[in-house]
TrEMBL record:
<dbReference type="GO" id="GO:0090529">
    <property type="term" value="P:cell septum assembly"/>
</dbReference>
<keyword id="KW-1003">Cell membrane</keyword>
<keyword id="KW-1133">Transmembrane helix</keyword>
<feature type="compositionally biased region" description="Basic residues">
    <location>
        <begin position="339"/>
        <end position="349"/>
    </location>
</feature>
<comment type="similarity">
    <text>Belongs to the FtsQ/DivIB family. FtsQ subfamily.</text>
</comment>
<keyword id="KW-0132">Cell division</keyword>
<feature type="transmembrane region" description="Helical">
    <location>
        <begin position="53"/>
        <end position="74"/>
    </location>
</feature>
<feature type="region of interest" description="Disordered">
    <location>
        <begin position="311"/>
        <end position="349"/>
    </location>
</feature>
<feature type="domain" description="POTRA">
    <location>
        <begin position="87"/>
        <end position="155"/>
    </location>
</feature>
<dbReference type="Pfam" id="PF08478">
    <property type="entry name" value="POTRA_1"/>
</dbReference>
<keyword id="KW-0997">Cell inner membrane</keyword>
<comment type="function">
    <text>Essential cell division protein.</text>
</comment>
<dbReference type="InterPro" id="IPR034746">
    <property type="entry name" value="POTRA"/>
</dbReference>
<protein>
    <recommendedName>
        <fullName>Cell division protein FtsQ</fullName>
    </recommendedName>
</protein>
<dbReference type="GO" id="GO:0005886">
    <property type="term" value="C:plasma membrane"/>
</dbReference>
<dbReference type="InterPro" id="IPR013685">
    <property type="entry name" value="POTRA_FtsQ_type"/>
</dbReference>
<dbReference type="InterPro" id="IPR026579">
    <property type="entry name" value="FtsQ"/>
</dbReference>
Amino acid sequence: MKRSASERLRARLGAVRPALTKLFARRQRKLQASNSPRAEVKHREPREWPRRVGLVALKLGATVAVAWGLLIAGREVYEYATTSTRFEVQHIIYDRSAHVDDDELRELLAIEPGTNILACDLAELSERVAAHPWVAMATVTRNLPDTLGIEVVEHEPSAIVLAGRFYLVNAEGVPFKVVERGERAELPIITGIERSALKQADGQPIPELVAALDVVRMYQTKQRPRLGELHLGDDGSLTLYTAEVGTQLRLGRTDFEVRLARWDALRAALGERADHLAVVHLDNETKPDRRDRVVARFANEHDEAVLLAQAASALESDDETQAPTAKPAADTTPAERRAQRRNRIPSYE
């Protein structure tokens, strides 16, 4: 039986329909895949890569050009600053101190005319100024275009130490210079220190001087007779001598504040007679079962003769002493002996 044409067409369409369905499904999947972000990146990467490389190269080239330009400009500025007369040292700002005047400062700095301010080594200049014996610390600053600022902190002497020669000592217990005429003032003198201790210290505080200065400050906190000398004994004991009368105060090795209080009480009890004391033993040990005792002795002519002999011996042994030699005790009047007794230590007035 023959089929009609329409039936034959339906049969053919039915045969190719599965193939057409698969084809349309495949194309649909491709369209969906092409619309996804990953596909878009993969699709665009080949076209964006050259542009990115170009941008990086352009930025790198611009950076190198700017850096090169800055380098050249900085070199030109440096050459101008180090060779121009505008930056030569012309002025020094300095507040004159008590012992370093303008002329001494310029001599210490030793800056040649025409020196460029940028070529100055500030640390080296500070060390030059600090080399002055009175200078404890110096600071040099640069104020462009042509000015140097100098700040100086001087030593403040607290005492004098006798160790072969007389040396000024600051509050930290460091001897900083030899005493010259006119520098003695009314500073107390510390004795009993070996010269070797000064050499070993090498500019550092000396423990014995630090301890002695603590006692000096303790003594000076109250109104007492001016202190002339503090002697350090070999056993560590301290002995004080007043400046005007030469009274000897034996403090021992401990409890200095308590023993100075005993000295104050004794002076208050004796009144004006306290000025005639020769020796005061303040180093008696305190005991709970008895009252504090202070043993004192008044000066007599024999004591004065001994003190005069000690003073004459000190004058002969010290090369720097300019005071006249004392007369023998037998050839002097009591008034002269009292006046000479006050100069137990050679003076540098």
